Amino acid sequence: MTIAGIVTLLLEGSAAAGWFAAFGTLVLAFVAVFQEWIKSWFFKPMLDLKIRAARPDAEKTRFDVNTNVYYFRVAVTNCGRRAAEAVQVYVARVKRKKADDKYELVDRFIPMALKWTHKGVTTLPYLLPDMPPSYCDFGHITDPGRKMAPPFENLEGVSPNETVFALDTEVSPKSKSNLFGPGEYYVYLKVAASNCAPKDFKVKVKMPGKWFEDEEQMFRDGIGLSLD
User: Fold this and answer.
1) pLDDT at 131 over 80
2) Hey, is 107 helix, strand or coil?
3) Which of 44, 60, 119, 157 lies at a 20 to 30 A Cα distance from 197?
4) Which helix (H) or strand (E) holds 28?
């Protein structure tokens, strides 16, 4: 090979090396600027929700010394690879099944967030991934024999011996818009965090209006809860 040929190869090699060096510099600069965005894309929360009428998701307890009540909860988990921050469960709307099997919007219901179990707040600061579920109060049923006493969960048109389902929204409106008589309903939930897009869930609630003191019988015959 001639000297001119050797010089040409060296120059071409130098140009290629310079190009790769420039490309590498650009890649490093991109990663430095967008590393948080890249991390949020590959390492993000993934929220999930389940519900059932069984312990520990549901239980019989007392509202006060004289009043029995059944509480029902949704179990929220983070299946992602990053902690979810400022997590909320929000009731967007409620529909009730009509005699023709179609569902109509319950327009008296006011959309609101639910409260986290035993915390009394609507926002959970964080939810770690791959951990047991955190519970959010979905609703409760109070002994119908105590409907005329606190918490005064009686509804016009509902028989004194029939149950009323109360959604555990952030407030209990004086309009009683969170209370529902016997029937079949769809409750539309949104679960979201400040670093996670909302995810929609639809909970079917079947309530024949019957009250049972026995917890197992109540969960079998007095209430039906499922994701649809």
Assistant:
1) yes
2) coil
3) 119
4) helix 3-42
- Residue 203 main-chain phi, psi, to 5 deg: -100, 125
Q: What angle do CA 90, 228, 198 make, to 5 degrees?
A: 30
pLDDT, one tens digit per residue, over 59-102 is 999 988 889 999 999 999 999 999 999 999 999 999 999 999 99
Q: Are strands 196-207 and 224-227 parallel, antiparallel or unpaired?
A: antiparallel
Q: How are beta strands 183-193 and 84-97 bridged, if at all?
A: antiparallel
- Top mean-pLDDT range of 5-9, 17-21, 32-36, 71-75: 71-75
Judged by DSSP in three states, 193 sits in strand
3-state SS of 41-66 is HHCCCCEEEEECCCCCCEEEEEEECC
Q: Looking up tokens 């009250």, which residue turns up?
A: 211
Residue found under tokens 């109360």:
166
Identity of residue 126: Y
The answer to whether the CB of 225 falls within 8 A of the CB of 53 is: yes
Q: Output the CA–CA distances (angstroms, integers) from residue 187 to 67, 102, 103, 165, in the order listed.
A: 26, 15, 11, 12
Distance of CA 63 to the CA centre of its chain: 25
CB 87 within 8 A of CB 127: yes
